[in-house]
Amino acid sequence: MRSSKRILDLALVVILSGVLVIPFSILLVVMLVRQGLPLFYVAERMKGVGQPFWLWKLRTMTIAAADSGVSGGDKAGRITPMGAFIRRARMDEVPQLWNVLKGDMSIVGPRPPLREYVERFPDIYAAVLQSPTGITGLASLHYHATEERLLAACRTVEETDRVYAGVCIPAKARLDLLYQRNWSLCLDLVLIWKTGTGILIKRFFKGYRG
């Protein structure tokens, strides 16, 4: 699985980097003018049990000294106007091409979890993280909107954690393991295509019309 998947990842990193370099550079300049530094959000994630790495994203929220856990409705007020646009277009994930190039992630796979959830649910993640973590994936495509809706309704850190740990983690794990059992390069290409057409394009124009 890993050798052919790695070749596909590197080929896509080269292609996407060439396509995105100009619009992404323009976006960074606009971000610098509109919301200042830092431009990037770098946080620890896990690519395996006991295997942390630093995940890169564009910064879409105001900086908080003590920020932890997943993002729910309790953090919604920190999303900047520029950050809301970036999230709709999913451009905040583009820096993770660097993680893919380094070998920390794949283009397709389960989303890399926080250390605290790997330590709380070792059996789940010991199985899920047999697959390389990814920028997009089966769970991302088919559960992202549901997870977003559930977490948006949470008003405290405790409620966000309770919903994420009790509802979202098991639901995503089932999809991630389904992907793992049925993996093929063809499946990865289908999921990449669906990400491009179903999330990037449709969500961008939905936000634009709104």
Would you kindly provide a brief summary of this structure?
The chain has 210 residues and is mostly helical. The protein is 61% helix and 11% strand.
List keywords for this structure.
single chain, 210 residues, mainly alpha, two-stranded antiparallel sheet, two-stranded parallel sheet, 8 helices, globular
The average pLDDT score comes to: 92
- Poorly predicted parts: none
Instruction: Report the sheet with the most strands, covering strand number, pairing sense and barrel closure.
Output: 2 strands, antiparallel
Q: Report the helical percentage.
A: 55-70%
Rounded to the nearest angstrom, the distance between the terminal CA atoms is 42 Å
Shape from CA axes? Answer: globular
Number of helices: 8
Beta-sheet strand percentage? 5-15%
Order of helices and strands: HEEHHEHHEHHH
Global structural class: mainly alpha
Number of strands: 4
Q: Walk across the major sheet and give the strand order.
A: 1-2
